[in-house]
Structure formats: C-alpha cells, structure tokens
C-alpha cells in the first residue's frame, strides 16, 4: 500500500481576463476517478488543500450527464473533503505520491502555492510518483527551486491544451493558458487531438490531458506506484 497525497484547489472563483469573477473549484469527475482508482488499488489517499480549507467542487462539473453518480461518490467521501490537511503541514518525503486533479481552481491557488511547490520539488528530487490531470498541471508551476529553475523542465507532460481551453474552457476569458505557461518554463507539452483520451508517462510523472482521460490517468498512476 502506498500513501498518496491528493493536493486539491481551495479556490471557488477565478478572475477572468476582463476582471470578472467566474465560479470554479475542482472538476468532480477528475477527483472522483483519481480517488476511486487509487483506493480500489489498495492505496491510502489523503486530501490536502492550501490552509486546509474545504475544496469546492466546480458547479459546471456537476451539470453534465452522470452527475448523480459523481455527487454520490463525493457524498461518500464528504468527511475527507470536510477535513483536509493543510499543505503547509505536510513534510517533505511524507507521501509516496502526489496527485493533482484539475478544474480551473488550481490555476488560482495551487499554481502559486509555496508549500505545494516545496513538496513537488522534493518529489521530483527523490523520483516519487507525481500524477496530474487536465488543469491539475497548473500546480506544477509552483515547483520552482530557490535558484529559479523549474523542477519539471525537460519533462514530457499532457495538459488541457490551449485549443481545448479556447474551444470548451474559459475561451478568451482565461487569465492564462496552462499549457503555454508550462512550455515557457521548459516542460515538453505533448498534445493530442482535443477531447481525446491522452495520458503521458515520463518516468514516474503521469499526466492526463482532459476529463476524458481521468480513468486512464488513474490507472497509469496505479501502475507507476506498482513499479516503485
């Protein structure tokens, strides 16, 4: 059994390019499928957020077909969601893996969270499993070393693409494009056709492109843990 830290956004709004606030949070399908896949494989999952706040679910992620099943799963783990750890309380090396589900929320807080950045740099340095999904890779932006270098430079990553953001995300309202920002820091973005299932494995870094890739991303994280 591995001990997995699931770092989840605590942001419930994102400021758009025009200055207006837009509701956000974690994307239900992504958190559910990552959590389910890991638990069913026998792993222990701890949820943590900035300052230990309750992570909000993006209302848009509960508006589609299948939302009732997602709500039921979230209700089943409500105690975990109600009492997350604070990222600042987590010690380096405490967990075997760090996973980050998406939703636009990570663009707001996880992308600049110093504690998450510390944990991700430590994970990269000790070659721990890191799994990121859709907008979850925004959290990787926090992983900048004291010398200014990006801990995931040169690593191959799947992420919600700029085309997907323009087609079905926040469009021109997005405050920034996650894929482009990661590329600027030196990550190697490997985009697939928009809305297709795409998971990239680069050693113990596992990344999924979009909500459609949720189940496969969870499977690949489980496989990476089994290979430790």
From TrEMBL:
Keywords: Glutamine amidotransferase, Lyase, Stress response. The keyword Lyase applies. It comes from the Bacteria. Residues 28-223 form the DJ-1/PfpI domain. Belongs to the peptidase C56 family. HSP31-like subfamily. PANTHER family: GLUTATHIONE-INDEPENDENT GLYOXALASE HSP31-RELATED (PTHR48094:SF11), PROTEIN/NUCLEIC ACID DEGLYCASE DJ-1-RELATED (PTHR48094). This is Type 1 glutamine amidotransferase domain-containing protein. It comes from Microbacterium helvum. The lineage of its organism: Bacteria, Bacillati, Actinomycetota, Actinomycetes, Micrococcales.
């Amino acid at each position: 059994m591995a001990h997995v830290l699931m770092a989840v956004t605590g942001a419930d709004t994102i400021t758009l390019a025009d200055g207006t606030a837009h509701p956000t949070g974690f994307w239900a399908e992504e958190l559910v499928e990552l959590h389910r896949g890991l638990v069913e494989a026998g792993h222990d999952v701890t949820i943590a957020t900035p300052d230990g706040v309750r992570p909000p679910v993006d209302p848009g992620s509960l508006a589609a077909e299948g939302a009732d099943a997602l709500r039921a799963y979230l209700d089943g783990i409500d105690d975990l969601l109600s009492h997350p750890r604070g990222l600042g309380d987590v010690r380096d090396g405490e967990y075997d893996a760090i996973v980050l589900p998406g939703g636009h929320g990570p663009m707001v807080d996880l992308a600049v969270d110093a504690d998450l950045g510390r944990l991700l740099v430590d994970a990269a340095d000790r070659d721990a499993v890191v799994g990121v999904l859709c907008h979850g890779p925004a959290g990787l932006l926090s992983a900048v070393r004291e010398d200014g270098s990006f801990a995931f430079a040169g690593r191959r990553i799947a992420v919600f693409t700029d085309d997907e953001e323009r087609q079905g995300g926040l469009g021109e309202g997005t405050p920034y494009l996650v894929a482009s920002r990661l590329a600027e820091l030196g990550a190697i973005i490997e985009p697939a056709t928009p809305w297709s299932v795409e998971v990239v494995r680069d050693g113990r870094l596992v990344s999924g492109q979009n909500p459609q890739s949720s189940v496969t991303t969870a499977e690949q994280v489980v496989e990476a843990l089994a290979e430790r």
